[in-house]
């Protein structure tokens, strides 16, 4: 009997995962591994680095590959060290909005500034899920969370628009409902040089979607019509998706190599 | 090789001789010169240097590089050392070698950035949350700083642990002739076949680090984990086994790790216990005391953690004095064995002079 | 070509995404597990959107 296509890349002994039923993290895994399958990529040369949070558990322990599960907010810093020491490896960071853009915000900005040769996939679930639903810097205005019980009054950040202004080579956002676009975006970014950032808009099933009274399937179907191409999206009502930036400048590794060559 | 060097230069030279090929750091007085030297030397030698955006990045980048096979270090001072504690804790938990130099300055907080102190001893030993242990060395001169920094890299590789080297601003910016011979680069031990990276049947054996990129599917995590790296946040026996092994890794080797210098008269009436740059004043004081007919000895700690307590018990005799450029931290250790007369002076860049020490001893001995 | 779906009940968490996403409404949840009640055209959306790697599509010979 044919098993699910992703299972050949996964550690069977940790399945079923500890993710909530319907958690969109599993779909991110599928999109990533479908990209890997179509690229016929050598998983031995991929190193995953993640922080703390539900989406940081995507690579570790589920994906059968080298993985470094680090401190909260520090995934990009650790990934930087790995990539500089082993530029031959494909270093992929998978983490969440809180881990990468709140506590890890400084490292995110500077890795983008340096055009560090990393692929960063940020699963944006709009809250801190693992710690039971506190607000994060991407929590939409008005949402009730554990720390905004009367409705969030702070304005959220649009990380893709911020990173668009840095030296990053590739910045994109897709909704979790855009499986094929997400998969193709990962394929495109996989072997590019420089800093590649893909945000996956994937509201937390337990602390956001459930309180909307929707099932996971209903939420995905809703996102089909809520996620609109950024060129035409009305940001008051839609989530703008697409590629915000696509360039092919030399990344940090190449620039440092050139620097070293120029001294000798 | 024989050269006039500052302590910071000696630390950098010791690191380079040890084969350090990765430096990530952040500027902070009085350690920045170490970083400047590494910035100039490492790219020339095929190594990697990066100035990080903050100390949190500095330590985490160094740890990431070490996991990927680099011989990595960073250097900082008190405020940066405080920021690095979580990262050092991660390196302890995942058993990753890394050398952290803390050039101590007057604290707490911003303190007096350009003035020496010895106030970070307890922090170097205990600064991380939870059960943990690492090795702390403290040279007392630029000459010793070169050798001890080299030793720190050796210890880090041998035991797969972070190692802290504590100097202070006097040593860092003081200049003296430094000689060195025959220091070999350290060798990173890498697994050839997959084996559990975080445990061993033999409790005295520290397994080699697994390589990345070879299909070993290694798992590093700061969560409690079993010997293969599988996260286990539930079982008591898995956690206890892990932290006990990490603690024992350091403490079972306390006798071989504990470096110290003993100097002065046998059958002494006075024992000085100290470390770092203060020791030089103590040596001067001992000579003066001898001329006053007071027999004094020095027990100078070079390893500040772990401690071979038997050495302290054996060597401490007579009246005990602990001079420190702080309000007293080493004195707590010594109080286990004898009543301690503290000689404390900190701040303003004013050293504890031999005359301060002589005066304190003479007053007590009267 | 004809297709069928395989469900690994040990992995399925009954989230129902497969039933929601099927473009032909061919999957219904029955006692917590997905069941093919209509015609499967092999689009594999259920497989791609299954967060627990529990449902897969197979060609029927």
How would you describe what is shown here?
The complex is a heterotrimer of chains A (264), B (366) and C (61). Chain A has 264 residues and is α/β, with parallel strands linked by helices. Chain A has helices at 25-39, 58-62, 75-85, 97-102, 105-114, 159-164, 179-190, 205-209, 216-226, 252-263, and strands at 46-50, 66-69, 90-96, 119-124, 127-128, 134-135, 170-175, 196-201, 227-229, 239-246. Chain A has a single domain, classed as Thiamin diphosphate (ThDP)-binding fold, Pyr/PP domains (Rossmann fold). Helix content of chain A is 35%, strand content 19%. In chain A, the strands form two sheets. Chain A has an eight-stranded mixed β-sheet, with helices on both faces. The longest helix of chain A has 15 residues, at 25-39. Chain A is globular. Chain B is of the alpha/beta class and 366 residues long. Chain B has two domains: 2-179, Thiamin diphosphate (ThDP)-binding fold, Pyr/PP domains (Rossmann fold, 3-Layer(aba) Sandwich), CATH 3.40.50; 261-365, Rossmann fold. Helices cover 39% and strands 22% of the residues of chain B. The longest helix of chain B has 18 residues, at 142-159. Chain C is globular, with a radius of gyration of 10 Å. Chain C has a two-stranded antiparallel sheet. In chain C, strands 2-3 form a two-stranded antiparallel ribbon. Helix content of chain C is 16%, strand content 33%. In chain C, strand 2 and strand 3 form a beta hairpin. Chain C is an alpha+beta fold and 61 residues long. Chains in contact: A-B, A-C.
Task: Please give a quick description of this structure.
The complex is a heterotrimer of chains A (264), B (366) and C (61). Chain B is an alpha/beta fold.
Number of helices of chain A: 10
Instruction: Write down the Rg of chain A.
Output: 18 Å
How many beta-strand runs of chain A? 10
**Helix/strand/pairing class of chain A, anyone?**
alpha/beta
End-to-end gap of chain A: 60 Å
Overall geometry of chain C: globular
The total tally of domains of chain C equals 1
Straight-line N-to-C gap of chain C: 8 Å
Mean pLDDT of chain A: 97
Secondary-structure arrangement, i.e. CATH architecture of chain C = 2-Layer Sandwich
Report the portion of residues of chain A in β strands.
15-25%
The first-level CATH class name of chain C: Alpha Beta
């Amino acid at each position: 009997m044919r098993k699910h296509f992703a299972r050949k890349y996964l550690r069977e002994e940790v399945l079923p995962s500890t993710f909530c039923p319907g958690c969109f993290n599993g779909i991110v895994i599928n999109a990533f591994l479908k990209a890997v399958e179509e690229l016929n990529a050598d998983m031995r040369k991929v190193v995953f680095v993640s922080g703390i949070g539900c989406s940081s558990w995507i690579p570790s322990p589920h994906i059968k590959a080298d993985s470094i599960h680090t401190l909260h907010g520090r995934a990009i810093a650790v990934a930087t060290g790995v990539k500089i020491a082993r530029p031959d490896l494909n270093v992929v960071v998978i983490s969440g909005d809180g881990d990468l853009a709140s506590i890890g915000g400084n490292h995110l900005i500077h890795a983008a500034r340096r055009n560090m040769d990393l692929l960063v996939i940020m699963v944006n679930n709009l809250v801190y899920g693992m710690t039971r639903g506190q607000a994060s810097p991407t929590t939409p205005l008005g949402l009730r969370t554990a720390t905004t019980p009367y409705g969030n009054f702070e304005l959220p950040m649009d990380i893709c628009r911020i990173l668009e202004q840095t030296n990053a080579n590739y910045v994109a956002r897709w909704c979790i409902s855009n499986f094929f676009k997400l998969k193709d975006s990962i394929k495109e970014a996989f072997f590019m040089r420089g800093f590649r950032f893909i945000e996956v808009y994937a509201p937390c099933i337990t602390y956001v979607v459930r309180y909307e009274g929707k099932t996971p399937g209903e939420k995905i179907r809703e996102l089909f019509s809520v996620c609109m191409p950024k060129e035409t999206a009305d940001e008051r009502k839609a989530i703008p998706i697409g590629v915000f930036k696509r360039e092919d400048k030399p990344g940090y590794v190449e620039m440092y190599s050139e620097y070293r060559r120029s001294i000798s | 090789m024989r050269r006039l060097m500052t302590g910071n230069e000696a630390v950098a030279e010791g690191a380079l001789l040890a084969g350090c090929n990765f430096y990530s750091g952040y500027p902070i007085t009085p350690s920045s010169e170490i970083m400047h030297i590494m910035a100039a030397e490492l790219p020339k030698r095929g190594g990697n240097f990066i100035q990080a955006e903050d100390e949190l990045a500095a330590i985490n980048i160094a740890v990431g590089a070490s996991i990927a096979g680099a011989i990595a270090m960073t250097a900082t001072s008190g405020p940066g050392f405080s920021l690095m504690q979580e990262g050092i804790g991660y390196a302890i938990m995942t058993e990753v070698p890394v050398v952290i130099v803390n050039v101590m300055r007057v604290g707490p907080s911003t303190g007096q950035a350009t003035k020496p102190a010895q106030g970070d001893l307890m922090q170097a030993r205990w600064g991380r949350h939870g059960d943990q242990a690492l090795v702390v060395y403290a040279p007392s001169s630029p000459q010793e700083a070169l050798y001890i920094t080299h030793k720190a890299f050796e210890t880090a590789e041998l035991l797969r642990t972070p190692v802290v080297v504590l100097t202070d601003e006097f040593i860092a910016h003081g200049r003296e002739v430094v000689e060195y011979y025959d220091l070999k680069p350290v060798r990173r031990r890498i697994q050839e076949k997959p084996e559990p990276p975080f445990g061993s049947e033999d409790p005295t054996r520290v397994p080699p680090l697994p390589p990345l990129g070879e299909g070993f599917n290694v798992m590093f995590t700061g969560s409690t984990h079993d010997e293969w790296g599988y996260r286990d946040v539930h079982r008591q026996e898995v956690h206890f086994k892990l932290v006990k092994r990490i603690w024992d890794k350091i403490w079972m080797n306390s006798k071989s790790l504990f470096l110290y210098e003993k100097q002065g008269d046998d059958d002494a009436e006075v024992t000085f216990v100290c470390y770092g740059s203060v020791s030089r004043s103590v040596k001067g004081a001992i000579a003066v005391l001898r001329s006053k007919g007071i027999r004094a000895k020095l027990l100078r700690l070079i390893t500040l953690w772990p401690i071979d307590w038997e050495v302290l018990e054996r060597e401490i005799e007579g009246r005990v004095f602990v001079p420190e450029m702080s309000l007293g931290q080493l004195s707590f250790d010594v109080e286990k064995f004898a009543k301690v007369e503290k000689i404390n002076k900190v701040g303003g860049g004013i050293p504890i002079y031999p005359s301060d020490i002589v005066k304190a001893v003479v007053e007590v001995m009267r | 070509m004809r297709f069928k779906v395989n469900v690994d009940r040990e992995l399925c968490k009954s989230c129902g995404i497969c039933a929601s996403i099927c473009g032909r409404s061919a999957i219904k949840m029955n006692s917590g597990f997905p069941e093919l009640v209509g015609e499967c055209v092999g689009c594999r959306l259920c497989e791609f959107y299954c967060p627990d790697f529990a449902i897969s599509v197979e060609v029927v010979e």
